């Protein structure tokens, strides 16, 4: 992993955005992390800035203005973004949410882990392209 990774985190919770940034920092890798506070803001950024094409999109489910599921649906309708992995990043571990986002085109479903170090491990594995199950984030 020698290139600079461009991550796009869509999450309305400032604490979760900070935890994500700390986990990225722990990976000790070059990255740029752009954030959006809700699905509407994310879609505006992705549609208005044609030069912005993230390597990975991390998407929370429960957000104001536009839910993560509806945002995912819109992202997958955009042909420019079809090859971008979209990882659901949520506290929800409901089977219905997991299955519905799989059907909508999510690449992985990451249940927000309790520890930053475990999140760092998972992010490293995702960025490294390691073979992983769809559902991630449960502590070992």
TrEMBL record:
SUPFAM superfamilies in the cross-refs: CheY-like (SSF52172)
Lineage: Bacteria, Pseudomonadati, Bacteroidota, Cytophagia, Cytophagales
PTM sites of type 4-aspartylphosphate: 60
Keyword annotations of the record: Phosphoprotein
Keyword presence, Phosphoprotein: yes
Organism: Fulvivirga imtechensis AK7
Protein name, per record: Two-component response regulator
Domain Response regulatory: 6-127
GO process annotations (BP): phosphorelay signal transduction system
